[in-house]
Structures are given as C-alpha cells and as structure tokens.
C-alpha cells in the first residue's frame, strides 16, 4: 500500500483513508472511532465526513449517530463493472462451473499483497450464501491467493512473508519454507487447494487466469464444505477449472 509521503495531495489521501475503516465487521463508525483509528483530530474527521455525506459517499445513521458507506459507492462499483469488458466472459464461465459442480464459484484479483473477491456464482439451490464481493483475504492461506502467488515472483512472496503469516486455523501455513514448497507444487500441477487454511470447514480449489500477454490477472475457485470437497472432487474440479482458465486465456484482455 502506498504511504502518505507518496501522496501529492495529503489532505485528500487522509480523507480517502478514512473510508478504509468501514468494513463488513465494522459497517458503522463514529467520529470518535475514526479519530482514534486515523490519528486525525475529531474536528477534521467531522469536516471530512460532512463533506462526504453531501455527495452520498457516506450516510449518517439517525439512530446511532454513526456513519456508514452511502449509495454512491454502489454507483462507483456499477461503473467499474460496466467498464470491465472481461467480466461478462468470465461470468458466463463461472455460472457454468457452478452448475456443473453444484458449489460456489469465486473470482478474485491481487490487491495490495492480498486478494479481493470481485465476483461470485452460486448454484440454483444455494439460498444462503453470504456475499464476499469486495472482501479481501490473505494470499498465503486462500486457494485463489496461492494460485496467483505461485506465479507472482520471489519478491512478492518475500513481501507477504515479511508482513507475517497469521495462523487463521490449525491448517494455515505459517512457515516460509513450507509456503515455498506449497507454491512449487502449485506451479507443477497448475492449481491450488485451500485445505481449511483460512476458514475451518471450508475447502477450495483454484487456478490462476493469465491474459494473452501471459500475465496474471485473476484466479477462479470452487468452494464448499470440506466433507463435500473430497480429494476425488479436488482432482475433478481442478480439471474443470484448468479447462476454463485455458479458454479464458484466449479471450482475456
């Protein structure tokens, strides 16, 4: 992530950074909270939030008096999606994979040493899947993350290791040497597996998506409860995903 010293307009940088404190775990934030988290004066935070609210970027909750992200964010997201010529192509492939596998299918991209989930496809009989679009996760413990990390170079790997390998579960890889061995396996076989490394009870299979210039652009995964994603299913799903990624490679800009 860029530092404030790199910002040309530092006041704008500080204002935008306040939006990063609104997360799925903390959708509502008070002026006091934002001030403590950012180190900015309460008066400064108040002025920024008031300005954002004029544009619908944030909204003040009438009951709690706290702020949350506003509908303007949805407009920005819709504009972003509409400008991505690759999305309809990938979405069609994701829907087919979800129908064949009967499991959730996710699309993720690299985002500041993490992955960000940007799209999902769900089987017709899955009515209770939580949306993870826009959510970030660490690369070293997710299938989509490891699928991309294996091809992003040693410097990228070193930066992630330096940041720390937090043990989300008892299965999380927390040692650099173990991670390097795992990434080499991924390069050889072409797909990655999250064996309950990020979340207990969830197993995922993922493959990287390269564009026509042989550059990593994203990763696509099949995810489901670990009892359903057996070793046999891993092999079957990896084959489906590899075929899809090969097809997308010829179409991805």
Walk me through the structure:
With 253 residues, the protein is α+β, with helices and mostly antiparallel strands. It has 2 domains: 3-74, Orthogonal Bundle (Arc Repressor Mutant, subunit A); 84-249, Beta-Lactamase (2-Layer Sandwich). The protein is built from 9 helices and 8 strands. It has helices at 10-19, 31-38, 42-54, 72-82, 87-101, 143-149, 154-163, 176-189, 231-249; strands at residues 58-60, 67-69, 104-111, 114-121, 136-138, 192-195, 202-210, 216-225. The chain has a 6-stranded antiparallel sheet with strand order 5-4-3-8-7-6, with helices on both faces. A two-stranded antiparallel sheet has the order 1-2. The longest helix is centred in the C-terminal third of the chain and has 19 residues, at 231-249. The chain is globular, with a radius of gyration of 20 Å. The two termini are 25 Å apart. Pfam families: HTH_IclR (PF09339), IclR_C (PF01614). This is Transcriptional regulator, IclR family, C-terminal domain protein. One of its GO terms (molecular function) is DNA binding. It comes from Anaerotruncus colihominis DSM 17241. Residues 9-71 form the HTH iclR-type domain.
Please give the structural blueprint.
Layout (H helix, E strand, L loop, with lengths): L9 H10 L11 H8 L3 H13 L3 E3 L6 E3 L2 H11 L4 H15 L2 E8 L2 E8 L14 E3 L4 H7 L4 H10 L12 H14 L2 E4 L6 E9 L5 E10 L5 H19 L4
Antiparallel strand pairs: 1-2, 3-4, 3-8, 4-5, 6-7, 7-8
InterPro entries: GAF-like_dom_sf, HTH_MetabolicPath_Reg, Tscrpt_reg_IclR_C, Tscrpt_reg_IclR_N, WH-like_DNA-bd_sf, WH_DNA-bd_sf
Keywords: DNA-binding, Transcription, Transcription regulation
GO molecular function, one term: DNA-binding transcription factor activity
């Amino acid at each position: 992530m860029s530092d404030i010293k790199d910002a040309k307009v530092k006041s704008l940088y500080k204002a935008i950074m306040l939006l990063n404190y609104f997360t799925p775990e903390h959708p509502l934030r008070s002026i006091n909270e934002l001030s403590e988290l950012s180190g900015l004066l309460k008066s400064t935070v108040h002025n920024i939030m008031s300005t954002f609210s004029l544009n619908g970027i944030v909204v003040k909750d009438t009951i709690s008096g706290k702020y949350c992200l506003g509908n303007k964010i949805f407009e920005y997201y819709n504009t972003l999606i509409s400008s991505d010529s690759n999305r309809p192509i990938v979405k069609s492939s994701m829907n087919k994979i979800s129908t064949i596998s009967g499991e959730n299918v996710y699309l993720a991209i690299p985002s500041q040493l993490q992955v960000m989930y940007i799209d999902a496809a769900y089987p017709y009989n899955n009515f209770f899947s939580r949306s993870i679009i826009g959510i970030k996760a660490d690369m070293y413990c997710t299938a989509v993350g490891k699928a991309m990390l294996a091809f992003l170079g040693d410097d990228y790997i070193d930066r992630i290791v330096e940041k720390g390998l937090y043990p989300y579960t008892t299965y999380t890889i927390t040692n650099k040497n173990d991670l390097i061995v795992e990434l080499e396996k991924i390069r050889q076989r072409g797909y990655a597996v999250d064996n309950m490394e990020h979340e207990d009870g969830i197993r995922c299979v993922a493959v990287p998506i390269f564009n026509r210039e042989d550059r990593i652009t994203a990763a696509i995964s099949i995810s489901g409860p670990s009892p359903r994603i057996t070793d046999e299913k891993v092999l079957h799903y990896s084959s489906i995903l590899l075929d899809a990624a090969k097809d997308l490679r010829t179409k991805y800009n």
